[in-house]
Amino acid sequence: MAVAEPESELLTQIEEGTAPAQVLEFAARGLVPLPPSEMARALGTLLARGEPTLRALAEESFRSLPAGALKDAVLSTGVKPAQLDAIARRTEEDSVLEPLLRHKDVPAETLAWLADRIGPYLQDVLVTNQVRLLAAPVIVERLFENPHLSADIRRRADEFLEEFFLKKEREEDARAAAAGAAEVGEETIPTAAAITPAAAAEAAESDEVHKNLFARLANLPVSLKIRMAWRGTREERLFLVRDQNRLVATAVLKSPKTREGDVETIANMKSVSEDVLRHIALRKEWTRKYSILLALVRNARSPIDATMPLVIRLAHGDQKKLSQDRNVPEPIRKLARREVSRREG
Questions:
Q1: 3-class secondary structure per residue, the chain
Q2: How much of the chain exceeds pLDDT 70, in percent?
Q3: How confident is the model at residue 222 (pLDDT cuts 50, 70, 90)?
């Protein structure tokens, strides 16, 4: 059944801000003659505008709307991005959020807000929309912050990084090699072998180095940061591995220029994210090197779930030191104490 013209005209007036103040108040109270889906859009408009009195009334009215009305609003012709955002932030219904996640006009900021909140089913819907992820990598970044992120979605998000960012860098390297360019190698700068990893980590985090690199790299778009993380100098990579964007930090670890010495330096850093340290801990070829394994366990930033299995691989003397180290989490100390007792008992 078609919507009556007066109702549609009323919605248009509310959306365009031309409705009289009294009509807006009635709309905020849910008292105007609109079908449920149009009422959802009208309330979404008032919520997005943020006028304090109307917003408080609209919040209360919005809570009374059924999920079916919200879904119909999302699927309606002419629904506005601000209305989609208002709906997204006020419902947990999968039946509403699924079409909203797929909507071509939903703002990237809305998808990023949802990314670290939605459950596994909707995570799958979100990560499938690769065009939106490519246009706004912050969505993937926020997805990794979701406490309910499934292992499958984490794997697919990593594959997204490989496919859409790093694949281009690998192809460019291959073309350069085919054209007779020199193979990618380490820069002529002090290597990790020239100084201890702990000293290298401290140098990489020094104020002066940080200021100089920050001025040069901080305002680059994510795509260029990823490019620098892949093929930049060692100094640039050790700076970018601390970037808040997980795609950038992960690209450093995936770079063919990142050697074991670099990984050991990163494992000693106190300012990298837990995700970076977890990524290192899960790479068997890296934790086969004892110094990397030890650095991970001793780093207070390392996630406990990733380092617990590594404690039992430590030498007896290092377990003993770890059992008394108050800079590491208590569960790590307890496990180290148990291992020491087992070996000495």
A1: CCCCHHHHHHHHHHHHCCCCHHHHHHHHCCCCCCCHHHHHHHHHHHHHHCCHHHHHHHHHHHHCCCHHHHHHHHHCCCCCHHHHHHHHCCCCCHHHHHHHHHCCCCCHHHHHHHHCCCCHHHHHHHHHCHHHHHHCCHHHHHHCCCCCCCHHHHHHHHHHHHHHHHHHHHHHHHHHHHCCCCCCCCCCCCCHHHCCHHHHHHHHCCHHHHHHHHHHHCCCCHHHHHHHHHHCCHHHHHHHCCCCCHHHHHHHHHCCCCCHHHHHHHHHCCCCCHHHHHHHHCCHHHHCCHHHHHHHHHCCCCCHHHHHHHHCCCCHHHHHHHCCCCCCCHHHHHHHHHHHHHHHC
A2: 88
A3: confident
Residue 74 lies in a domain: yes
pLDDT of residue 106: 97
Q: Are 326 and 201 in a shared domain?
A: yes
Claim to verify: residue 19 and residue 71 sit in the same structural domain:
yes
Q: What's the mean pLDDT when you consider all of the chain? A: 87
Instruction: Give the count of domains, the chain.
Output: 3
Last residue of a domain, one of 93, 121, 144: 93
Domain that holds residue 115: 107-163
Do 80 and 111 have their domain in common? no
Token pair for residue 140?
A: 């993937």
On whether residue 34 sits in a domain, the answer given is yes
Residue 104: the pLDDT is 95
Q: Is residue 180 part of a domain?
A: no
Residues 227, 338, single domain; the answer is: yes
Last residue of a domain, one of 142, 163, 184: 163
